[in-house]
Write a structure and sequence with these properties.
The complex is a heterodimer of chains A (421) and B (522). By secondary structure, chain A is α/β, with parallel strands linked by helices. Chain A has two domains: 39-184 and 243-419, 3-Layer(aba) Sandwich (Alkaline Phosphatase, subunit A), CATH 3.40.720; 194-235. Chain A has helices spanning 31-39, 88-92, 110-119, 132-140, 194-212, 218-235, 247-253, 257-270, 289-313, 379-389; strands at residues 43-49, 73-75, 82-84, 97-103, 150-154, 159-161, 174-178, 275-280, 320-325, 329-330, 342-343, 347-353, 360-362, 398-401, 404-407. In chain A, the strands form four sheets. A nine-stranded mixed β-sheet of chain A has the order 6-7-5-8-1-9-12-4-13, with helices on both faces. Chain A has a two-stranded antiparallel ribbon with strand order 2-3. In chain A, β2 (73-75) and β3 (82-84) form a beta hairpin. The radius of gyration of chain A is 22 Å and the shape is globular. By secondary structure, chain B is mainly α. Chain B folds into three domains: 2-44 and 314-377, no CATH class; 106-290, no CATH class; 390-521, no CATH class. Chain B has helices at 2-15, 23-36, 47-59, 65-73, 79-89, 92-106, 113-124, 129-138, 151-156, 167-179, 199-209, 283-290, 297-312, 332-344, 349-357, 390-401, 405-419, 434-442, 444-448, 457-462, 466-478, 484-496, 501-513, 516-519; strands at residues 212-216, 221-224, 231-234, 241-244, 265-267, 278-279, 386-387, 520-521. In chain B, strands 1-2 form a two-stranded antiparallel ribbon. Chain B has a two-stranded antiparallel ribbon with strand order 3-4. A two-stranded antiparallel ribbon of chain B has the order 5-6. The relative contact order of chain B is 0.12. Classes of the chains: A alpha/beta (421), B mainly alpha (522).
């Protein structure tokens, strides 16, 4: 396993993480774009199927072909569009989805793939690009939700994952909720009443204010940001209590990890979080692939269809861009362990919601699914597509890193216009 | 003109001290650069700030209120030097250095009691840095005195889950931590942005370490397999086949000796005892011999830069592991001077530290000069705040709140969990930590420190008359007297809570311990 090349002398000092904060949106985009940003809400639900979901057992089935495997294709709510029988619920809501079947990317290792895909693989400029979540947090802002702009719901551990932010600086990192749970120590202990808590925090802020006068701002601002985030989350503790939701919701999403986590994601989006990433692990099926697909894909299918329906019912699909993807697809060739290996050459990404056409399939692979038969789309093209869908123009919007203007998407690529509304 | 006289007088005072012969030369270089570029320089730290800074840096904790009072009241002109002498001679010096070097060298990969014991013993004896580095790189399983040092290699030779042993990361870490050069990108190709860093540099260094193997993790037994031929590699760009024997970056390749078959081992492998044997040609021994040497400039420059960073808050070369021709650092002559003198003084860390803490650069205030723009940090014109390590923070919290030793030990693991950077993350930068904020806000064990208890700060303060509380509180927690405004805040609060006085005092004390001023070494 080759470690990812991360040139340390080009990493931006975390000390500078607040440097751009004062400039805000104005420093990043033209006034017209900033105005547009303020007018409409922009949210993203990013579902990451870590390890790589098989396109052949999901969005691009090839039944009765040499590499098609034993599973069937089923019709969907869009006449003429078929997807794998492992996704019956998604088939039911296909008229709200768009699938790009012509995705072709560069990295076939997990370590490089996850990073390159989520950072949009811009041309190497010697800086560490932000993950899509951090980029959206920066460009779309936190809105008036009173919650951090980038929240990551994932199995296992949580924490504040500042590394996602790359050169944007740690403020744009991800607040990770391990297993959807609130962070440790979130609740004020029973012995401490609210008035006493307010008083001691007011004293603390006063002390910080006095200390900061005449000193470098970095430490104090980093510290206040952490305490602010803590206060924000405390005000919204109820978000983490799924038991307050109707039992029907929990049944529709399922009680498994991805089910609970997507239900929490819906709640976070309803509460106004700008970017919610939900990660599911266990998709890297190098062996016994078809049994794994039969057990794993329904765990995605059920809550995915549920969240699409819920966002639609609430009128939120006009605001929320939904993306379901992984770092690559899986090989058409079935290996000796009845598995499928890593296949960045030809795979599929599903999206829906804000700025995206409903009920379309863009691009196609060849008859056996080994290659893209239409124009191939690298991750840079998808970033262009998503920025456009969010109403952020990649031609006129730039990041600024210590004065250096940097494109928000690979400048030699263009969006997948077939799926743009 | 009076200012110049004052400066000259200060210089004369330091020069008069025979022990501090390096400090004025350091200050001359730092001041010359600031002056040439018109960078603002802050006045010297006041006694309280200096006492707190030096105690945290050299003893890993804060002074007691009594120590603070005594130091502030001491009229002796050389009281700062005396304090530094005392701190450098105290047993707490070895404890603090152990915390500092453990963090820098292991980057929270893990810990081992033998390793901690080795570090403590070495710093207590002021073992020269070259000897310590030699112990770590040699990892001699037969020498019980230095066995703990093997943890540096042993921990990095462990498997992580199902991943194979990451020898490349070990090579990278040796380059970063002992030579100040991060060759990570050069594993697969010449560095794309750093001309000096070649793939040969990584691979030559890798040839020393790629055959190292972990025989027994618990016993810190590191062995090595035979090295019989050159390491083959090719750039992923040019695909040209290359090969290298063990070689230091930019240095000559070693000759790989050939032995008749069956005679490669000084001590043959033994399947019964699971011993890998001891090769006659030991590349780890070769690395331990070649890296920590006076002639190896990288070795000396790296460590003086890291010690400078630990005390002054930023490396002369920054990031610490990016020494190269196009990143000569803020004060190239100063780095050369430090490296030369450190070698001349036989890699004596305590001597180096003693010199650095006696500089005016170290002793400046962290406050801006009045009505001035703060200069960029690399001028060292204003003291740079350093985040406290989990151990420093725990020691300081315990000292401030008067918690007993048992309570302190119970808190250690919690403090590490709350305040440590993620493992493998260098500790040279600040990141906002939600976990730490919530820990300070709500963890019951933290809050308990602010309940009244025999000998606790809160009980002591609650028993004082109102007008004495602020002084005692600020001296105990922040090593300084309160300003008029701060004293007034305290008086007003006490007046509001004539009833629940201990609880109100507890909130006051908590607010100061949770504040920025407490959480950094300023």
């Amino acid at each position: 396993m080759r470690p990812l090349c991360t040139p340390a002398d080009h990493r931006v000092s975390r000390r500078r993480w607040l440097g751009a904060a004062g400039a805000g949106l104005a420093g990043l985009c033209t006034p017209a774009v900033a105005q547009e940003l303020r007018r409409r809400r922009k949210q993203v639900l990013f579902i990451w199927l870590d390890g790589g979901m098989s396109q052949l057992e999901s969005w691009d089935p090839k039944p009765n072909t040499p590499f098609g495997g034993p599973l069937r294709a089923i019709p969907t709510s869009v006449p003429g569009v078929h997807i794998s029988e492992t996704l019956p619920q998604s088939a039911r809501v296909m008229h709200r989805l768009a699938v790009v079947r012509s995705v072709s990317t560069q990295d076939n290792s997990h370590s490089a793939g996850v990073d390159r895909i989520q950072r949009g693989d811009p041309k190497n400029r010697g800086v560490v690009y932000p993950y899509f979540g951090s980029a959206v947090a920066k460009l779309a802002g936190a809105g008036d939700s009173g919650l951090p702009p980038y929240v990551w719901v994932k199995p296992m551990n949580g924490g504040f994952i500042y590394k996602d932010a790359g050169f944007l600086g740690p403020r744009y990192g991800a607040l990770a909720l391990g297993d959807g749970r609130p962070p440790e120590n979130l609740l004020r202990p029973p012995g401490l009443d609210a008035a006493a808590d307010d008083e001691r925090n007011a004293l603390r802020r006063l002390a910080d204010q006095r200390y900061a006068a005449g000193r470098r701002p970095e430490h104090t601002e980093a510290n206040s940001y952490a305490f602010e985030m803590a206060a924000q989350l405390q005000r919204r503790v109820e978000l983490f209590d799924l038991s307050r939701l109707p039992a029907r919701d929990q049944q529709r999403y399922g009680t498994h990890d991805l089910g609970r986590h997507l239900l929490l994601a819906r709640r976070l989006l309803e509460a106004g979080v700008t970017f919610v990433k939900v990660t599911s692990y266990g998709w890297d099926s190098h062996g016994d692939h078809f049994n794994q697909a039969l057990s794993q894909h329904p765990k995605f299918d059920q809550p995915f269809a549920a969240v699409i329906e819920d966002l639609h019912d609430r009128g939120m699909l006009d605001d929320v861009l939904v993306i379901a993807m992984a770092e690559f697809g899986r090989t058409p060739r079935i290996n000796g362990h009845v598995g499928r290996d890593h296949w960045p050459e030809a795979w599929s990404v599903c999206m829906a919601g804000r700025g995206i056409k409903r009920g379309v399939v863009a691009g196609a692979t060849n008859a056996t699914g080994t290659d893209v038969a239409t124009q191939p789309h690298d991750i840079g093209a998808l970033f262009h597509t998503w920025w456009r869908a969010l109403g952020i123009d990649p031609e006129t919007t730039q990041f600024r890193n210590a004065g250096q203007p940097l494109p928000i998407a690979h400048e030699e690529m263009t969006p997948v216009t077939d799926v743009l509304a | 003109m009076p200012r110049l006289v004052a400066v000259l007088a200060a210089v004369a005072l330091v020069v008069a001290d025979a022990r501090a012969d390096l400090a004025p030369r350091i200050d001359a270089l730092v001041d010359a650069k600031a002056k040439a570029d018109g960078a603002q320089v802050s006045p010297p730290a006041d006694d309280g700030e200096f006492l707190r800074r030096a105690t945290l840096d050299l003893a890993g904790t804060i002074p007691t209120a009594a120590e603070a009072k005594a130091f502030l009241a001491d009229p002796a002109p050389r009281k700062r030097d005396k304090l530094l002498d005392r701190l450098l001679a105290a047993p707490t010096y070895a404890e603090r250095m152990t915390d500092l070097f453990h963090g820098a060298l292991m980057e929270r990969l893990g810990d081992h009691p033998e390793w901690t014991a080795y570090l403590k013993k070495s710093f207590a004896a002021n073992t020269p840095w070259d000897a310590m580095a030699r112990d770590m790189l040699r990892a001699d399983p037969k020498n019980p005195d230095t066995l703990g040092a093997a943890f540096f290699l042993a921990k990095r030779l462990e498997n992580y889950g199902q991943n194979p042993v990451d020898h490349s990361a070990l090579t990278r870490d040796v380059g970063r931590l002992f030579l100040g050069k991060n060759f990570q990108c050069c594993e697969c190709h010449d560095h794309l942005f750093v001309e000096d860093y070649k793939q040969q540099d990584f691979q030559g260094l890798h040839a020393f370490f790629r055959n190292a193997t972990l025989v027994n993790a618990a016993k810190l037994h590191v062995g090595e397999k035979l090295t019989t031929e050159k390491l083959a590699f090719a750039s992923v760009f040019t695909k040209v086949a290359m090969a290298t024997a063990p070689a230091l970056p930019g240095g000559k390749m070693l000759d790989i000796p050939t032995f008749p078959k069956g005679q490669e081992f000084a001590e043959p492998p033994d399947r019964k005892t699971n011993s890998p044997g001891v090769p006659k040609f030991r590349t780890l021994a070769a690395a331990a011999d070649l890296i920590p040497r006076a002639e190896n400039r990288d070795f000396a420059r790296n460590i003086v830069n890291r010690v400078w960073f630990a005390l002054l808050g930023r490396g002369l070369v920054h990031p610490l592991d990016m020494h190269h021709a196009r990143n000569p650092g803020s004060h190239p002559e100063l780095l050369d001077l430090l490296a030369d003198e450190f070698v001349t003084h036989k890699f004596d860390l305590k001597w180096l530290i003693g010199e650095l803490v006696r500089t005016r650069a170290y002793q400046r205030s962290s406050r801006l000069p009045a009505d001035a723009v703060m200069s960029d940090p690399w001028y060292f014109g204003t003291a740079i705040e350093k985040r406290l390590t989990a151990d420093q923070l725990l020691n300081a919290t315990v000292a401030a709140t008067g918690a007993d030793a048992k309570a302190a030990e119970a808190l250690r693991a919690k403090f590490h969990k709350a305040f440590d950077n993620p493992s493998r993350d260098p500790e040279d930068e600040i990141a906002p930590s939600l976990r730490a904020a919530l820990f300070v806000l709500h963890d019951p064990a933290v809050l308990k420190l602010f309940d009244p208890a025999p000998g606790s700060l809160v009980s002591r303060l609650a028993a004082l008359p109102d007008e004495q509380v602020a002084d005692e509180l600020y001296l105990t927690v922040l090593t300084r007297r309160p300003t008029a405004a701060e004293a007034q805040t305290v008086r007003e609060l006490l007046a509001r809570h004539a009833g629940g006085r201990p609880a109100a005092v507890g909130r006051l004390a908590w607010a100061l311990v949770a504040s920025m001023e407490f959480g950094v070494n300023h």
